[in-house]
């Protein structure tokens, strides 16, 4: 958040991209939209992300107030991540982006590794 406060933004999109930009942040938020996940569960869902990158992205999302981190005093430590109340406000935006991607893939005949039933549920915001 400090980095965000040090900068003067010229438009809302610029700020939004600083908060949500990058390869992983929106995907992390997408996976947290319906349930709390442990670090290892998130890592398994994000093909290609390193442990270091996932840690960094989660810290940034937590710092921006979009993700909650809960640590359980166990050995080994158990850490869970969930969307904060404010983080939940981005979910409709994520659905819009997801739908746009599905439409884009259809328009330009691109391969999307999803079953038609899943696409239908997403388009109706059931997932």
Automatic annotation (TrEMBL):
Keywords: DNA-binding, Transcription, Transcription regulation
NAD in keyword set: no
InterPro entries: ArsR-like_HTH, HTH_HxlR, WH-like_DNA-bd_sf, WH_DNA-bd_sf
Gene3D superfamilies in the cross-refs: Winged helix-like DNA-binding domain superfamily/Winged helix DNA-binding domain (1.10.10.10)
SUPFAM superfamilies attached to this UniProt entry: Winged helix' DNA-binding domain
Stretches assigned to the HTH hxlR-type domain: 11-109
Pfam families in the record: HxlR
Protein name per Swiss-Prot or TrEMBL: Helix-turn-helix domain-containing protein
